[in-house]
Amino acid sequence: MLLSIPVQFGAVAIVERAGFRRTTVVGCSALLVLMVMLALVSRAPDPTVAFVVIVVLIEVVVSASWGLAWHPWMQQVVPRPGRPRYLATAQSTAQGFNVAMLAVFALLAGATASVVEYQAFLGLLAVFVILSIGACRLLPEPVVSRRADENRPGVLTSVAAGYRRARAGVESVRASVPMRRLLLVYVIDVLLATPLLTGYAVVVLGMPAALVAFSIGARSLCGVVLGPLWGRFLARHGVRRTVALSLSAACVVKVLWLLLPADPGQGASATTQVVFVSLTLVGAALGIGYGLSMQLLWYELAPESDAVALFTLKDVLESGKAQLGTAVAGVLVSAAAAWTFSAGSLSVDAYKIAGLCGIPVAVVVIRVVSRLDVPEHARA
Length: 380
Prior knowledge:
mainly alpha
């Protein structure tokens, strides 16, 4: 991720000059080459180093192509009234693809994958990348907004122009009150997530590993099933009501987590296991509605003239939040394993306290979103 960030910002002007379709197709083609190299990595003199290098290159290629081009492209291609359902369908399809791939991998490889099974799995992914390239060629190519003085040939010139365009995108955020509020929400809502839930459930709550694995898989299925439903709700009732409903219910779920006792020695009781699965699934269902609302707000509020730079900023923030949240959650899980306070049926530890800190953040987010000037069509 650290290597992809400067590449992303430097490639903003290249995307605007080359166009969305060409950027995505070239990125997918490079991804195919890297996937072939990854399938043959076991034959390298130093497989470990080769694996790390190829995986880093894949991250950079995906970030500098799909990460830059796709959402600004869809912002211009998808009509505004259809954006809520499009985003919901896209998320549901992605989650379904992930579940299907994991299921296929589990059936073929079991607990441990052989080199042949690993290569076969990569081959299957390569087929979908090829299909994606074909699909991109069928999509319309809108005119990408760019400045004439930054449309000169030359990679170094384009990289320098990319940083200027990224800076211009930041300036557009500073000049737009709705974008400033949206960026504030996007920065502080890291406290609404529950990273490293698997580690906390097994180490602190004493949940069976198989049950935790089932819960995480069921969360992905929630995205498949509930994504379209949230899309319809979002299209009918708008962003404000969707955010208020999803976050208000999520606050109740955070309080109910206090009812889960810490018992790593004896293991969780059957009742505790049922409550854990229920809260995990309900939390995932509510997170889908909130996530779709935030994605829609970026589509609605980001000006098309700076869309590539702004969606790049969003992608970088998203990656940074994921990395930071995982690191902090690791410390919280360790602290929760070392200290827990119980009073009757309530149990408090560092991880749960961090979750409760998300309640005032949720209140702030609801308040900020309620003051955003969302276009009328998104509330109809």
